[in-house]
Amino acid sequence: MIIYKSSSLEIWAVMIIYSQMNMPQKRLSKEAVKVWIISEMIMNLIGFMIIGVLLYLDYFFSWQEWIGWILIAIVVISVLGTVWSFINPLLRYKNWRYDIDEEFLQLKSGVLYEKHELVPMTKIQSVATKQGPILRKYELYSISIETMGSSHTIPVLSKDIAIKLRNQVAHYAKIKEVES
Amino acid sequence: MTKTKRHHPLLMLIHLWTLAKRFIFFVVYLFVIKADSESSFIIYGRIIIFAAFGIMVITIIWTWFTHKYKLDHKSFHLYKGIFIKSEQTIPFSKIQNVHRHTSYFHRVFKVTSIHFETGMTGEETTVKFEVISHIEADRLEAHIKSTDGDALTTDDVKDTKHANLNRNIHFEPTKMDILKASFTSLSFLILIPLVGSFYSKINGIFHMEKEAKGVFMNIISSEWMVTIIIMVLVIASVTFGIVRTFLAYGKYQISSDHDRIYITKGVIEETSFSISKEKVQAIEIKQSIMKRLLGLAEVKLTSAGSLSSDEETLEINSLYPFLPVKRAYEMVSEILPSYEVKQKMIRLPRKSLWVRLIKPSWIWFIATAILFYFRPSILKVEQAWWILSAVLFILIAVLRLLEFMNTRFILNNQFIQFKTGGMTTSLFISKRDKIIEVKVTRNIIQQMVGLASIGTIHRAKPVHHAGVDDVPLELATSFYHWYMGRKNEIKLE
Predict the structure, then answer these.
(1) What's the complex ipTM?
(2) 20 to 30 A from B224, CA-CA: which of B182, B282, B339, B362?
């Protein structure tokens, strides 16, 4: 029991060290939660409509029994998914952080699966602001950043911040290091 | 600066040859198999084939007339296009590695092929000379070498020519090495199915036609006869294995000069590879179980340019795949003095073993679900399905245990070094300035016990991801800070 306690203390100490690792500070736009919930709701609605049609067809043509069971399972999972889609955006927003300086782009996201990325500015090849229909309605932008090896997205930002950030990244990324 | 030149005329021949290979199926079908057919489909088919072949031949010749190349003091200029003319400029500084291949075809005509691989993405980023005379290939390579990086004066060019003679040979396999290699590559194992089927056939004859072929059986069933046959087979397959290994790795040579590494291999088909030392993105030392038992290892160089030519997936980036371990480590420091290999590394903490063991295995879940559904009885054992599932479970656990035991990690000044893998281990060494991106991830279990996974991305074609799972959080943090320190090494343009 004592051993367990000391080890959990150790973990706390480590967590403190971890939290000191120059965490990125900037957050997404507060509207992110709203936008995500709306888009998830649209997706859910479409999903439920498809299931509804399938259930009706199942009833009407009296398909085989196992198909009915599978459909019921899908309904249960979708309902749970819908509940989750109201909680998830909040958690996502709470945990999303980004930051840039002359040398690095830092991204941190995720709750159950936390991801912490560090991208040198010199390796960024392109940066773009993007806007889907929902984002456009609220005058928001997402930023996508392509590097030599991967692509990253900062999902929901207000217009001013997004454009400023894009220009800043573009400016920093102009500096190239000697490749060898 | 050189004159604008056309490619070697034999290029047309090699293109004709590939064209013929592509058409052979249609020709055989339309003119041999359906030779007597009068159906309009076949007749029109023949006409179309004729026309297509004619057009292709004309295209090949015309293409040859329009494709030209030129070199100036810092880049390739490639001209091509029949209707749409294009001019492509590829600077020498973007060339990551040089790859030369001499196939049977090239040997017959005393020519070779040479590829200059760039690290750029997109199509047509490789400067290819499918057919080129040896002299011209040497000239191109020397030209690029002399102008690589900064523009050099003519004196420097002379210097590099001089340095060419001073190539250091690091490794040439001895007969013993080849024997060991052929043993490791297990090519002799081909004898097992052969002998197996042979034996079962003898048995079949023995049981079924005992009386009918009594005399013959006396010979075949006598033990010494069988022994001799098996001996012959064993010798044959071992010889086969050795010959195969010799053909692939016999004339291997690893050499280097002041700024480049050269690897040459192949007895009949010759392939050579050269890379500038600065452009080595990472080193990987790989060992399979067999190699670990025999104390051998393979050293691989990661390059940002592509490493295999289109047709063969033959990887030439490997320094000899069957190097004695000690020699492998020595060679890394000889060839790449800027790299440092530390033998002593940090192991993972005990808790990461538990994290690895409790992680659900999808393979096991799916396999068990399938076994549960079908419940096959193997060798008349009804319970076979759960026995198999249990065996698989144990195998996965053992594999994870091995992975845990093999995993090591160290950050050493500007170097990162980690070893991973269960059955086949791989030791990965790279420099901070060669890593183009890093990440630290933690899933829910790792968050609870204070572990993290680290990952790096390197330039290669396609990009190379590497990393270690379940390292202590402190290490992950220091890894993150370590990468931030890369500003000390990079040079800005």
Answers:
(1) 0.80
(2) B182
